[in-house]
Design brief:
Layout: H1 25-33, E1 38-40, E2 45-48, H2 51-59, E3 63-64, H3 77-84, H4 92-102, H5 108-131, E4 137-138, H6 139-144, H7 146-156, H8 163-174, H9 183-207, H10 215-220, H11 229-259, H12 274-286, E5 292-297, E6 301-303, E7 306-308, E8 313-317, H13 318-321, H14 356-373, E9 378-379, E10 384-385, E11 394-396, E12 398-400
Parallel strand pairs: 2-8
Antiparallel strand pairs: 1-2, 3-5, 4-12, 5-8, 6-7, 9-12, 10-11
Length: 403
């Protein structure tokens, strides 16, 4: 007879300090060492930094996305609506319906057309980087930020003059997913959510009867038969947020990992070689841009001998799962030749990241172009990390280009 273990309780890891962890991986390893799934009294959630458990939960129909509205609801109204009506926080038939409308945006034939746009934008931005007369260049504002923003805006069909404003609002909205927020930070997230909702509502309303091109307008033309007008707005915001921050942080963190290894970057050939693809997967694994995904138990379930009650939340610590020594040899080592690389940076199962092909395309083309244009590129000083735990990236990455 199978006997369930006692409820394992996390101890010795102060999660209240998670936002200040410059290196979260020792803490995630400690969580993993206490069991494949442990309960956190601090966060009132089940935690796992175990690869097998994380993958099993992501693929389980009994562990679903379930958005819980923030309170007080009047202040969080826009944030709640944008999340509740987006595919990322839907399950079952609603998720399938909305995802079917979004999938054509990332079809292979459409990405083939986007590829030339991505390369042109990379070349344009790197020309501007090369033209700078300062001894060092900060890659975040000069390259890493504008590349994904300009690409996703072109894919969606958004006007150029709104891009910086949208990115700033997106950062503030997404910061609400951190486990710890001050009242001032929460207020900024609320205001940013309203700004994004109002912007996309106005744009969708004004363009509904036009023949404009872009994914946003494709979604508008499916309303209200397939998507409600509110779902068009929510999923346009989802595409923008997902198509910017994760790529910026994955590419930035990956470049820091690569350049910190000294000569490793010189081992990567230029465009078209499979080594670029392998290197990008290691970038995604080694510094996972979104460290935590959540699920809710849709029924009483058991994972690894632990009983999880219906309605309890599960926090998948993907940064820890992607450094699980049972799956990855020498997991803390950044190894651009690591293959196979079954990381979970893009999730798994029904909610596998819709934008993964575009993110990989941007990272592959950008990495090849940077190393080809600037083979002597080096870190000029210690990069500056962005605050927070859930979203992991850098505010500043200063480099010298021709050392």
């Amino acid at each position: 007879m199978h006997v369930l273990r006692q409820r394992p309780i996390l101890s010795g890891v102060d999660l209240s300090e998670a936002n200040d962890w410059s290196d979260p991986y020792p803490h995630l390893a400690e969580i993993r060492s206490q069991g494949p799934i442990v309960w956190s009294d601090a966060w009132e959630v089940w935690l796992t930094a175990d690869h097998a458990s994380s993958q099993g939960i992501l693929r389980s129909p009994s562990a679903q996305r379930h958005f819980v509205p923030r309170a007080p609801e009047p202040e969080w109204e826009s944030f709640n609506r944008l999340n509740a009506l987006a595919a990322l926080d839907m399950s079952g038939d609603d998720h399938n319906r909305v995802r079917r409308t979004l999938t054509p945006i990332m079809r292979k034939d459409r990405l083939a057309q986007v590829s030339s746009l991505v390369q042109r934008e990379i070349d344009r931005l790197l020309d501007e980087v090369a033209a700078q007369t300062t001894a060092t260049v900060d890659l975040v504002p000069s390259f890493l930020e504008p590349l994904p923003v300009n690409v996703i805006c072109a894919v969606l069909g958004l006007p150029e003059d709104s891009r910086a404003r949208l990115r700033a609002a997106s950062v503030l909205m997404v910061s609400a997913f951190e486990k710890i927020q001050t009242p001032a930070e929460a207020l900024a997230s609320q205001e940013a959510s309203r700004e994004l909702e109002d912007y996309f509502t106005d744009l969708a309303s004004a363009s509904g009867a036009t023949e404009e091109s872009g994914a946003l307008f494709d979604l508008v033309r499916q309303s209200p038969e397939t998507l409600s007008p509110e779902e068009v707005v929510a999923n346009s915001v989802l595409l923008f947020n997902g198509g910017t921050g994760a790529v910026i942080n994955a590419l930035g963190s990956g470049l820091v990992s690569l350049l910190s290894q000294g000569t490793q970057g010189r081992l990567i050939p230029s465009h078209g070689d499979s080594s670029i693809l392998v290197a990008v997967e290691e970038m995604l694994r080694h510094e996972t841009p979104i460290q935590l995904f959540e699920r809710v138990a849709a029924e009483d379930i058991e994972f690894n001998g632990v009983q999880i009650a219906r309605g309890e939340r599960l926090a998948l610590l993907l940064g820890g799962a992607n450094r699980d020594p049972h799956v990855f040899h020498d997991p803390d080592q950044f190894d651009i030749r690591r293959d196979p690389n079954p990381h979970l940076a893009f999730s798994a199962g029904a909610h596998f990241c819709l934008g993964a092909p575009l993110a990989r395309l941007e990272m592959q083309l950008a990495l090849a172009s940077i190393l080809e244009r600037f083979p002597g590129i080096m870190l000029a000083k210690e990069p500056v990390r962005s605050p927070g735990f859930v979203v992991r990236g850098y505010d500043s990455i200063a480099v010298t280009l021709n050392a």
